[in-house]
């Protein structure tokens, strides 16, 4: 990546589903994101915000979507030319995503500590002891109270706000350069929303993480955005 190239560059991204991708969910989306900055993707439901995010992450099942772009580059890497093994290596280590509903993303049968440790061991060759130390550290960083005890808790034993903090911890445990947050505060009350936004801002300042924040809430946009890309349905 040269000094002139943005950290993330998207040009004319289009995504289609169905036979030969004829059902267009995203059409000709373009934006740039600089390292350490926040871009808000704003639009009504069905405008393609989440599909844009999952396309950047390469999360569509093989054969389920047709993704095209004149450019889709992250830190100089052409994401469209990456095979699944390469994308799996990049997810978590270079880029990570926080989903809207943590209960559908966390495994209810596994403890919080186990899930975080497995996310780390997938990308880094560390010992079990070192992995547990990193898990405890990241839980403390996202302000989980009594973090050591919470490592043995199951998702259903935590509040909605704490589950969302666990998802943030899981996304950050390998210290990715890009974090995509897909409406992470939608299901939370106003007080917890403010806490999550403050936490993301604090972590961004600490780690220099670039953030794509997906939302339909203009109040959130006014509070956190360095730049805004508006998505339209149709």
What's the arrangement of secondary structure elements?
Blueprint: E1 8-17, E2 23-33, E3 38-42, H1 49-57, E4 65-68, E5 71-74, E6 77-78, H2 84-90, E7 95-98, H3 102-105, H4 112-123, H5 128-141, H6 147-150, H7 160-172, E8 178-182, H8 190-207, E9 210-215, H9 218-224, E10 227-230
Parallel strand pairs: 3-9, 3-10, 7-8, 8-9
Antiparallel strand pairs: 1-2, 1-4, 1-5, 5-6
Helix pairs in contact: 4-5, 5-7, 7-8
Output mean pLDDT.
90
What is the 3D shape? globular
Helix content class: 25-40%
Low-confidence residue ranges:
none
Q: How many β-strands, per DSSP?
A: 10
Structural class call reads alpha/beta
Order of helices and strands: EEEHEEEHEHHHHHEHEHE
* Biggest beta sheet attributes: 5 strands, antiparallel
Share of residues in strands: 15-25%
Rounded to the nearest angstrom, the distance between the terminal CA atoms is 34 Å
Please compute the radius of gyration using only Cα atoms. Answer: 18 Å
Number of helices: 9
